[in-house]
Every structure is written in structure tokens, then in C-alpha cells.
Amino acid sequence: MAGHTQVQGSASPEKRWLVGITDHIVPPADIEQEAFPEAEFLFLSGPGETDESSRQWQQVDALLAWHRRIGRAITPLLDSCKIVVRYGVGFDTVDVGALAERGIRLCNTPDYGTEEVADTACAMILAVQRKLVEYDRACRGFADTWQEHVLTPHARTSEQVLGVIGVGRIGTAVVNRMKPFRYRIVGYDPYQPSGHEKAIGYERLDSMEELLAEADIVTVHCPLTDETRGMMDREFFDRMKPGASLVNTARGAILADLDCLEAVLRSGHLASAALDVLPSEPPEDHPLIRAWRDRAPWLRGRLIITPHTAWHSDRAWYEMRYKAAQTARMYLVSGKLRNLIAPAGGSGAPELGRQGDR
Predict the structure, then answer these.
(1) Is 88 within 8 Å of 341 (Cβ atoms)?
(2) pTM for the full model?
(3) Where in the chain are the domains?
(4) Helix (H, G, I), strand (E, B) or coil at 314
(5) Strand (E) positions, the chain?
(6) Annotated catalytic residue: which of 105, 221, 251, 321?
């Protein structure tokens, strides 16, 4: 990103707040300006690259951050910053404790892509249930015969159990969308209040182990935290019902590594997997990724990968940017906080971050 100042809007006798955009967004900041007309927006380069870039980090009243790591290498520069707002839901790239030490608030933007992620998860669930990608790959090689090449086993949807790990905003949206397909829907989320399952309409299970043993399709909708990082390891897969499928539109690092996923796909213990997120993006060179790219016969159609785009639509892109800037404005102009992420042990924190949202 260029290190120069990008000014939006005309001068005003009112206070002009200085808001830094750390990465990914390119000028102009037209959507952010619409949400925060009193602000001047800076597109920041890396701190320390030049004296001017360091001064800009020191001067901003707020930061809007995408992928940029906001840790202890940056927080000492934030002399004027009062709030950092993540453009997205996850905040694993931000050192919450380091910000708190400097009295800087952290907020996220949890609801911009709820519908899109839920829609993608449902599409993946139905794709693995109805074996759409497997059939697409297989029938390209059919010659004299056609429907005789049916895949087995192939269960009826109403006879299947759908397990939802994390029943927050997105998990709830998935439950509501999948009810008409007549799955038996079970959910596990220890951070939801008692009775949540009755209000939404799913069967609550008391442990993830119980869900893994019962579900024919497991869909994951929890954030990346110390608790969930690497959660999907070999033990996780071994506890899954033999022949079950996995859908992950949450966070890539919830999967421990590609080795364990390859092992259970090769053995057939896991029938299929549909992933919008990976432990490393773009994917690292790995035998499973090579087999997927090469359409290896043993994996034909059993691994669906999309490039971390479950959240995306034109409207979600707009809402994400508008709401992030609006959150910064609410705090700077009116002193109001929304979607506050507090450090561990603080008020409102891991609870906010563990509502099953992507």
C-alpha cells in the first residue's frame, strides 16, 4: 500500500478524526467515508518503512484492520489510537492484551457475511449429501453406460443426522436453512444459554464427542481461539461416525493439519470433506492438495475446496466496510461501543468471540 495520506471529503470546522486503514482495501475509502463523514482516512504502509509512515501510525485516532498483524511490534506506535476495528469476524491476528495495556479498544464486525457463509455451508452440505461433485467427476469418463454408475452408499436426507458445532449467528442461520430438508439436526455449543436449542429448533448435545459419534455430516461454525485451534485433529476424526462427511466454512487453523485429513480420506473413514478454509492459504504443497488438483481417482469428488470466499457478495463487501467504519465513528464521536472484544478475563470477551461465528 502507498504510504501517502488519502483525504476523503471537504474540510469542516468540526473535529476531523484520523482513521488509518492498515491493508487490503485500496483507495478510495468511499464506503468508509459514507459511514464516517467526519473522518480523514489514511492508507497506511508498514510501520517503520519511512519516518512519515511511522508518524501516520502515531497520529491515527482509529485503525481499520484486515489481515495486518496488530501485535507488540505495532502497539507502541499507537500514541493517539483509541480503537481498532477488525473488518472481519475473527480477531486472531490482533494481540488483544497488548491493545488493552495501552487502553485501546478492539471491536470486530461479526454480522456482515452471516447469510453468505450460511448459504455456502448449506450448499456444501447438500453437495456432499447428494454426491454432486463426485457424480460430476465420475460421469466425465462414462461411455456406453450412464445411470448404471451409481455411487453407494447414498442415504436419504431425512435419514441423516446433521451435526452443527457452534450455534451462534452463522450456525443458527444454517439450522434454520436446513430444517426443511428434514435432517435430524443436533448441535453443540457450550457458550449458548440454556433453552437456545428450543428457541431455534435443534437437539442440543452435551459434548462434542456425542455429536461426532452421531452425525453423518458435521458442519463447523466456531471461531479460532486457543480452545479451537487444531481442534480437528486425528482424535477428532477418529471419533466421527465412520463414513461421515465434514464441512468447514469457519477457520482453517481449526484443522490441525492436512496430514490427518488425508489419512481419514484415504482410509475411507471420512467419506468426504468440503472446505472453504485451509490451515495455510494459499494451500501449501501437500500430497492431499496434489491429489485434489490432479483429480486422483481415490479422491474423485470427495474433497471440495473453495478459496475462502464463503463470506463474499457485493452486499457483504459493502456492509463489512461500512459497519467497520461506523463502529469506529460510534466510539470516537459518541463514546458508544459495539462488538467489543475484551482480553481474557475481561468483560465481554471470550464470550463475544465464542458465539459460533466465523
Answers:
(1) no
(2) 0.85
(3) 17-112+314-353, 114-305
(4) helix
(5) 17-21, 39-43, 62-65, 83-86, 105-107, 161-165, 184-188, 203-204, 217-220, 244-248, 270-275, 303-305
(6) 251
Distance CA 329, CA 191 (A): 30
Is pLDDT above 60 for 328? yes
Q: Return the CATH superfamily for domain 17-112+314-353.
A: NAD(P)-binding Rossmann-like Domain (3.40.50.720)
> Does 196 qualify as catalytic in the annotation?
no
Identical fold for domains 17-112+314-353 and 114-305, yes or no, is yes
- Type of residue numbered 28: P
137, 196, 269, 308: which one is catalytic?
Answer: 308
Q: Is 308 a catalytic residue?
A: yes
Q: List pLDDT tens digits, range 5-41.
A: 333 333 344 679 999 999 999 999 999 999 999 999 9
Architecture of the CATH domain 114-305: 3-Layer(aba) Sandwich (3.40)
DSSP string for 79-124: SS--EEEESSS--TTB-HHHHHHTT-EEE--TTSSHHHHHHHHHHH
Q: Which of 52, 281, 284, 351 is catalytic?
A: 281
Cell of 25: 482495501
